[in-house]
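Q: What does the assembled structure look like for these inputs?
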Amino acid sequence: MRIFSDAHFSFIEKRKSAYFLSGALLLAAIGAMVTNVALIGSWQDYGVDFTGGSLIQVRFEGSMTAGELRDALGGSTAPAITRFGAENEFTIRAPVLEDASVDEVRQQLEDEIGVAFGSGSFEVVRADLVGAKVGDELQRLAALAIILSFFLTLIYIAFRFELRFGIAAIIATVHDIMLTLGFLALFRVEIALPTVAALLTIVGYSLNDTIVVFDRVRENLDRKGGRKEDQELLVNRSINETLPRTVLTSGTTLAVLLALFILGGAVIRDFTMVLILGVIIGTYSSIFVASPALLEIQKRWGTGDDKEKEKARRRRKSASVPV
Amino acid sequence: MITIFIIVAVSIGYLYSNNRSNGRPIKLGLDLQGGMHLVLEVDDPDGTFTDSARADHIDRAERILRTRIDQFGVQEPLIQKVGSDRILIELPGIQDEARAKELIQATAFLEFKLVLPGTELEPSLARMDRAVVSALGEDSILAMGRIAEAPSETQDLEAILFGGADSAAAGDSAQAPDSVRAPEEEAAALPDSASEPPPGAQLRPFTALLNQGDGLGIYFVAEADVEMARQFLALPEVQVAIPRDLTLQWGADPVGIGAQTWRRLYILEYPAFLTGDYLESAVANRDPQYNQPLVHFQLNRQGGRRFADFTGQHVNDFLAIVLDGEVMSAPVIRDRIGASGQIELSNSPMEEARDLALVLRAGALNAPLAIMEERTVGPSLGQDSIDAGIMAGIVGLVLVVGIMLGYYRMAGLLALAALSIYVILVMGGLAAIDATLTVPGIAGLILSVGMAVDANVLIFERIREELLAGRATRTAVDEGFGNALSAIVDANLTTLITALILLQVGTGPVKGFAVTLSIGIVASFFSAIFVTRTLFLLYLHGKKTADPISI
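A:
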């Protein structure tokens, strides 16, 4: 059995539609984030890991509704309450107060719930209390990590491939991150530290996918006559040649992620959801964003400077010499 | 082949030895097994410490907390300095979080101070009152109520202390303890400054809160007024007005007399003549007479000598035992005391005495610590995540096995064999560097498993292509491995770059992700290139070059 063993899809020809789709999705993503800025005051629904504050997760003995809990914690002035997984489990997220130590907020919430429903009726199964200062640092470090990894990846790809491959790969990765962030903003998924880990996984996966396609492009370019061939056809052929692998790998990864999403429990559900989304977007972008971007760069600025052409010529020469 | 055997054997060896020493082959993070995670910093909201002073405090705090936590008896605690000014503490599986937090945050600063007679403070009381007035403004003080007007010269001590204009307070004082004695010195030393009040000193906000206490140098403050008095005392203007060589400190426990509850405010000599630094040991005990818990302490030789000298000179004076700024007790010195003493903890559970003895033994922190970050996961939630994770992991694995076997047949089986070796390598790697597996860490594993599968897929697809192109089996396999190599190397290396950056920059959960990802990539690379290849060569061994293979 072999899927897509002799595929001849004209991906590159359809790249205009892909530009349109990506453009529309990017606009929607930015729109969602801007709307969030207007409505909740930040690009994303940052969790306590970033804003500072306290999040406690309580499990009640008996049944409980979010409404009852909200009323007990002050009705309209109550902190954000979300049901978490099971029927009787909730997370309560409160901002950190000026001058109050992080654990005072938790104590206060526990007291209030205890007064309303009896102190033995619930159990605090998790508490995350983060000072505002810590949150700021995390945000800064996460951004720094992503930018730094872009930069080094660019250098590595420029070294192993050519500069334009690196730029195209980064464009595709930025595209993937933006779309994922847009999705998170649209559905107001709380951004916690594991979400950052998920975003970074997407960066890794997207790059992996793109590099496999680019590796094939590089190989075809280095074949005899590869440079003289119509580049659109060459890139399209490379995508088709790697298609069985792309489908199989993405399919396997998605299967595992779906298993984790459905069975893995509430703690990692948000996290796996981001990953699933990232795998889909990453697969799409390696075909419809990274490769077209490579072609566009090539069209506009050529295949590189003279030095690189020289390098390519030498490579061609050595390839044609029988070993 | 031999290399593979050796590496697998070493991995299993690590897993086995960790299993023996920790009861578990791989340490689980707090998010998976439950426990408490704390990040502490020197409590310094006004920024009074220099960076180097803060670093010194943290160094000392790290040592002391290690001792305290070791004695508290937590399995595999983590106590680690983060940067130069933070301490990270992880206590897996802790049950009593509140108690653990108290134990960690207790400054445990023990001091011995002489109680001074009221005459030492009285000349300054008027100045303190004035300082309160000038700091807060007359209006806001009047708004607080319960404030005495300046007494006329003819008024006696009672009037000043009990607040002449506040009849309610005076009435209360009538029921004050019968042990109240007005020492002659206090009466004799009526503040001279009161006779010539400067303008604006009509109010006596602080003095009005003070009532005669049950001993020399002790005031009673009604429990309801304590908060106000604390605020007054905390004002920098008031601090300046207090004579340099004395300090006012509160008693640790409220005193109930009749219907009224009081808090003692002691006038103490400053600085302390002896601190907990000279402590040699501390043991929790029970007072044989009243059955109250107490902590018996022993001073070292140098401290004992000082203690004996001092108490010898101050027979019949009162000695305050101050813990973290609160007076635990102030017994009278009946005789020269040697190298030991005790701290009484009235109405406290025995457990508290045991904790106090523990923190005293471990030593005092130079500065209090503030909690910057706290994460607790109850053991039940941890267990739920583990169960769900294992279930999902098994199903995911079955899916991968199904896809690989269904699609690649015999070659799929080889890939699965290589993947099992990969799993052993990753686990062994994690055990070898003593890493902790967290939820983000599992994410890193998933990504690297995905890449390991991907590497095999790349190779097999390449071999198929070569076979389709009409190559002989053996050649196709060689070419397939050769051609897939560059894609595998580049893909793995770029991901490794990202992982290593995260390892450098990331903290906590992000780091956990980076660690498993880095190990996973190295293992996946090894398993795909060496293990799969070796297995393939074994499979091809004995076949003729033209024989078909199952791929």
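Chain A touches chain B through 73 residues (CB under 8 Å).
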